[in-house]
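We emphasize that the prediction below concerns an isolated chain of 124 residues; any contacts that depend on oligomerization or on bound cofactors are therefore not represented. The input was used exactly as deposited, without trimming of termini.
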Amino acid sequence: MILLNEFEKTPYQITKGEFLEFLKLLAPFAPHITEELWQMSGGKGSVHKAKWPKYNSKFAAENVFELLVQVNGKLRAKITAKMGLTENEAKELSLGNESVKKHLSEHGIKKVIFVPNRLINIVI
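Result of the prediction step, given as a token string:
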């Protein structure tokens, strides 16, 4: 469905090759209609015996993640951040967030627990 939605957003029409690749991906979920569309589109043999598209990991890699910010173990914010964020960058982002600021006390921060690409826990 995500791929179909992306196809609908594009300003140009998809090519026949893109359509046939889409049918290969859709075939396990809608076998009968994809087989008919495959035959009508000029696909050779059965869509279920067609070679599966190759996987390219660079297209599947996420560049951002949702940093969970906790104060004393309680979730206080979710911040979208870039992958590979350092502890200092995560701390700056967290301390700049308004919902985190209101939960920090004037006693100061005792400890910061950082799990890369996951969460930061500020202990006060």
